[in-house]
Amino acid sequence: MDEVNTSSCLGLFKEIIVDKTFDGKPIPENLFIVAACNPHRGNSLASHKTAWMRSTYYVRSLHPTLKHLMWDYGSLDKNQERDYINEKMTMVNKEMPKLEVSYSMDCCAMILK
Amino acid sequence: MNIINFLHVRVQISTLTDLIVTSQEKMRDFASRHLKDQCGTEMAEAELACRSCVSQRDIQRVFTFYKWFMSMYKKFNPHEEEEEKYHRRAVLVSLFLVYYMRLSAEFRKEYSEYLNDIVRLPGEIQFSEAFEQEIDYYIEQVELPSGIARTIALKENLFATIICTITHTPLIIVGAPGSSKTLSFNQTIANLRGMESKKALFRETDFFRSLDPLYYQCSRHTTSNEVEIVFSRAVNRQRSNLKLGQPIHCVVFMDEAGLPEERHESLKVLHYHLDKQEVSFVAITNHVLDAAKTNRAVSLFRPEASEEDLHTLAIGCMCMKQTRETPEVVKDLCSPYSRSMNDPNFSSFFGLRDFIQFLNYLRRKQDQKIRLTPQLVMQALERNFNGHDQFDNISKRFLCAFDKNMQPPENFPKKRHILGVLQESMQDSPSSSLDLAENEVRYKLIIDPSEDDSVVRLLFSFGILERNNTRMFVCSDFPGDGQLQKIDTIAAIRHSAMQGHTVIMSQTDDIHESFYDLFNQRFRRIDDPEHGPRYYANIAIGAHSKPSRVHPSFQCVVVVKKSEIATTPAPFLNRFEKYLISHGSLLDASLQQLPPCMSILIQAAKEKV
Question: Is the CB of A54 less than 8 angstroms away from the CB of B25?
Answer without folding.
Answer: no
